[in-house]
Description:
This protein is of the alpha+beta class. It has helices spanning 17-31, 36-55, 103-110, and strands spanning 5-11, 64-71, 76-83, 113-118, 125-132.
Amino acid sequence: xxxxxxxxxxxxxxxxxxxxxxxxxxxxxxxxxxxxxxxxxxxxxxxxxxxxxxxxxxxxxxxxxxxxxxxxxxxxxxxxxxxxxxxxxxxxxxxxxxxxxxxxxxxxxxxxxxxxxxxxxxxxxxxxxxxxxxxxxxxxxxxxxxxxxxx
Length: 151
């Protein structure tokens, strides 16, 4: 099995944390030599997860936790965002004129799978998503088999 690369960091609960999370993700995936498709998809998914965490009502000045795990140069990524808020997020289907509410719809469309789990500390939740892209491995040339000659 390929080596697992991972990083954990914390963010303040403010709007500027969304571009900060994207920048940290892009930098780390660059270090891990992830492919461009993996980076772009992961950025969008992480952006939506962090945006939701910033908006959730939480007690006090709790921070947002982020964990990024990567295998095979971004062919498999797991993105986790933890917050101290209650409740479980659900995919919404906003109307055409609504300007928000599409975050988990986007995550659902781009991720192989996603879910929610209670935090081990007991306060809040972690929303996770797994993003899978084609591995950055050369595809073998097809073998051409000619007709056999029988004597």
